[in-house]
Amino acid sequence: MKDKIIKKATDMFLKLGFKSVTMDDIACEMCISKKTIYKYFSNKEALVEEGTEVVHRKIHALMDTVIAKNYNAIEENFEMRKMFKEMFQSFDHSPAYQLKKHYPEIYEKMIANEMEDCNTMFSQNIRKGILQGLYRPDTDVDAATQFYYTLIFSINENTVLESEAFILEGKALEYHTRAIATPKGIEELEKQLLNLTT
């Protein structure tokens, strides 16, 4: 029952907003009593925290699936972007923006975890791209990684609409890739950008 409550509550939080969904709404939607929810969660904040953990694990499982397909480094980044679009396209408001606004402590904890994971993933992608001749061999991996995730996190925490965040993330990806790509990498980037418009 606990897992069902987390799943339903998380779906509702992401679609309708962390602030607007109440414990009553969740109980009503699930046709259970509010008392049943409080049996597992002391308050709404505890439920939001567990829900963000579930989303975090789901995102990382999907990211691992993309990486396992062994795309080239640039294509891998575009496939990640596509995966995020499919996951979040039904939401009007950016979940990260909402979480930061209404549950800053949970947001800070989530961001600390995400930054560590993204740091690893972005670094691996850059090293892979260097080996494939798509990124310049003199690229400062740590600096490029930090620049890129600072851009991405800044977009997500400061952009209200998910659709706007998605467009800006695409621009950030292009900017990041052009900054470190070799001529071969630029060719691959242009191919990926062309795929987006066709």
From TrEMBL:
The keyword Transmembrane does not apply. It comes from the Bacteria. Residues 1-59 form the HTH tetR-type domain. GO terms for molecular function: DNA-binding transcription factor activity; transcription cis-regulatory region binding. Pfam families: TetR_N. Keywords: DNA-binding, Repressor, Transcription, Transcription regulation. InterPro entries: Homeodomain-like_sf, HTH-type_TetR-like_transc_reg, HTH_TetR, Tet_transcr_reg_TetR-rel_C_sf. Residues 22-41 bind DNA. This is TetR family transcriptional regulator. It comes from Flavobacterium croceum DSM 17960.
